[in-house]
Design a protein that fits this description.
single chain, Immunoglobulin-like, DUF362 domain-containing protein, TAT_signal_bac_arc, about 425 residues, alpha/beta, four-stranded antiparallel β-sheet, ten-stranded mixed β-sheet, 2 domains
Length: about 425
């Protein structure tokens, strides 16, 4: 599997990107008044050299990538408010579902990427309280696809625990009361999509496909229905399916965000098989067509390096045109490259502060610590065996002193636990006593 350097990554910009409209980096997302109205769609493409190490995903770096991507897309420099802007009218009782893409267990929508999105969703202030994690559902066609990718099935009601299950999970199934017309084929949607979701995040992967050239957000929904068409390279079946999801399922236009987990990918030989390139990037947009068009650009850039012909998936072009009108092929690419790497500034003195107050901890405590330089930071609670019990924080921080408010959960046992702080190239640990 090829590991992509920063120099090689730059080749992804513009290769095969016909119709690409590039705005200045970063600033374009935060002052829209500087630009006239355009029909092109914003796509955030966030790359970080440190996103993976070999086959290991560096979750604190990915958290930073997700946070910065949603803020760039929304034009809001607050993670919770940026996420909240994606879901108009959201309330404490709303359900946000994340449709994962785990048909290829070797290149799934990774749990680490989904956890980072959940972290941001849970930071939304909705009606004066954080959005409850139990109102988030991570789903796929089958329970087994989720467990094989590393997710844990859960259908309970603990407010601090995300629900996760497939359409084949007991009590779910397909909705016989809703029929979608997929280019002449009748199909029923998953009840998770038609009955249990108020808003949907489409979390796709970056792969080629022998039947559709590429498989990204449009094809992800073949895992959302009980009938599919694969003739004519899935075109116009794929655009027809997304049009039906948009216009037939209520609320209409239920899909609000499209994310591509491009930490690893397949530039040839898909959809099955192990990853054969390592782009170390995420894509994020509100437009399914722009999402898949830019994903195809990334794949084609890698194919060019191997003297392979460019792919031009028909279903992406068809999706942009009438009668589907699902999005735009014109892209305003907002690039975020190696955020937190090579930043300058006076380092803060690291006085080793790593304090918990009050202690012992009963229901709530504040963890205070210092970091000496900007970059990804994670704070986790471990049990006596060294297993991670919960993540208190993951994201990017500036140098200086920081505080994290910690609410304990009923599941935590009384006794001595371990806090682990990973940041600025160093790991610090300390014991903490929890009492009931």
């Amino acid at each position: 599997m090829k590991d992509v350097s920063r120099r090689d990554f730059l080749k992804y910009v513009g290769v095969g990107a016909l119709g690409l409209v590039a705005k200045p980096q970063l600033l374009s997302a935060f002052d829209r008044k500087l630009w006239p109205a355009l029909d092109a769609s914003d796509v955030v493409q966030c790359f970080h050299d440190g996103a993976t190490s070999g086959s290991t995903i560096n979750e604190p770096v990915v958290q930073m990538m997700v946070d910065e991507s949603i803020m760039a897309l929304a034009g809001v420099r607050n993670v919770g408010e940026a996420w909240k802007s994606i879901f108009p009218g959201i309330t404490q009782s709303s359900i946000v579902s994340i449709k994962a893409c785990n048909g290829n267990g070797a290149i799934p929508t990774h749990p680490a990427v989904v956890r980072c999105m959940i972290d941001g969703l849970a930071r939304m202030d909705v009606g004066g309280s954080n959005f409850p994690k139990n109102n988030i559902i991570v789903w796929e066609d089958h329970d087994s696809q989720l467990t094989q990718a590393g997710f844990t099935i859960y259908d309970g009601s603990d407010p601090d625990t995300v629900r996760c299950f497939g359409t084949d999970h007991s009590g779910v199934g397909y909705d016989s009361g809703v029929t979608l017309n997929i280019n002449g084929t009748s199909a029923n949607p998953s009840k998770i999509l038609s009955q249990m979701s108020d808003y949907v995040i489409n979390a796709a992967t970056l792969r080629t496909h022998n039947l559709s050239d590429v498989t990204v957000s449009l094809k992800n929904h073949y895992g959302s229905v009980n009938a599919r068409q694969h003739t004519n390279k899935c075109s116009p079946a794929l655009p027809a399916l997304s049009q039906q999801i948009r216009d037939v399922i209520t609320p209409n236009n239920i899909q609000k965000l499209f994310v591509v987990d491009g930490l690893f990918g397949l530039y040839s030989g898909g959809p099955s098989g192990a990853p054969n390139f390592n782009p170390k990037l995420l894509l994020m947009t509100r437009d399914t067509v722009a999402c898949d068009a830019q994903a195809q650009n990334v794949i084609n850039a890698e194919r060019a390096l191997h003297s392979l012909p460019a792919l031009d998936a028909d279903h992406i072009r068809v999706a942009a045109d009438p009668p589907y009108n699902l999005g735009s092929l014109d892209i305003n690419l907002i690039e975020l490259n190696n955020l937190g790497v090579g930043e300058t500034g006076r380092p803060a003195a690291d006085d080793g502060l790593f304090a918990v107050s009050p202690e012992p901890v009963r229901n709530r405590a504040t963890v205070t610590f210092t970091v000496s330089r900007p970059g990804p930071v994670s704070l986790e609670l471990l049990d006596a065996a060294g297993r991670t019990e919960t993540r208190l924080f993951a994201g990017t921080l500036r140098p200086g002193r920081h505080s994290v408010t910690w609410h304990t959960t009923r599941q935590l046992a009384a006794g001595t636990h371990l806090l682990r702080l990973n940041g600025a190239g160093a790991i610090r640990t300390r014991n903490v006593l929890i009492v009931k």
